[in-house]
Amino acid sequence: MIKRLAFGGLFILSCTFASAQQLARVQEKGLVGFINKDGSFQITPQFKNAQDQSEGKIAVYDGSRWGFVDKDANYIIQPQYVNAKSFSQGMAMVKSASGWLYIDSLGQELKSISSKRVYEFNDGVAFYRDATNLVGLINNKQEVVLPPTYDVIRPFKDGYAKVAKNKKWGVIDNQGKEVVAPNYDDIGDFNVGLVWAKKQNNWFLVSGQKEIALPGISKIENIENPDFVLVQQGNKIGFMASDGKWVIPATYDDARNFQEGLAPVKLNGKWGYIDTTGKMVIPTAYQDALSFSPEGLAAVKDSKWGFIDKNAKVIIPFQYEITAALTFKKQEKGFIDGLARVKLNGKWGFIDTKGNLLGNKWFDNAELFQN
């Protein structure tokens, strides 16, 4: 029997959790398990379904009900739910016969402030709606961070979220503070103190209350580097600084963000790489190309995907697929913390920077490593 509790001291204690080792969810013969970063099984495939590990707990489905296990597959909360989401901020959303609700790490039910429905926690907050049908924010103690104010709040990314009021878009932080007033017809993801926004057919770079109009611009990509913002002028792409001045003219058919001092660019149907001065340092020779990772490798395509270094030397042969299927939750491609998820002959696995297969194992499906 699940007990109903108000949010309070017991819940605060349940929020104290140790950092967990990284595990990757994999599927083999229709069953889900988890591997360590050495490629060994931490949990052998045994569940019909599972969520990614989060806060040292894993939501698992035994074919009948969802429950939660630890990293050794011992049940922390017995299977009893119709559905379950991963833990966040010391709580998880679970679905019982009566609907969705919150539980703490002991499986105790937590009464929700929301009069409509409960939402997953993200960046320390969750949405809630009251009778007005507007949306606001609560923290994991059910304290109101932001009263219901907006018609829409999109999921938070790195502490910021898009919001809409009266069909106009702006940005708030996870304390409910309005970072960019909702004055725009469309808006991007706020990052590095900057965001793109659009009014009618006019594009802007916006930082707080300051906006820079960009006449003649037809598109701006989400911003990763304020010194090199991907901007489209007509049907060509180049890079602008946050002050709206061109740093690399719009001469490319396509381009991706700078990472590790280089950016992939496309000309005449082929991809290569330029440096921050606009000099072509790796000739356009590839069908596709992604940004360089901190490991100094980039995924490039020549019928299949392989990996090159900054001297264009092929380090890992062209033999893989790297585009994740719709079953994957995490779509990041290329090397992440020394490993890249790749597909070969219909199976998924992880390779290191020398092309060695992690654990010498391939799987029917494999998610990225998570804490």
TrEMBL record:
Q: What organism, scientifically named, is this protein from? A: Sphingobacterium siyangense
Protein name from the UniProt record: WG repeat protein
Signal peptide start and end residues: 1-20
Task: List UniProt keywords, sorted A-Z.
Answer: Signal
Cross-referenced Pfam families: WG_beta_rep
Record InterPro entries: WG_beta_rep (IPR032774)
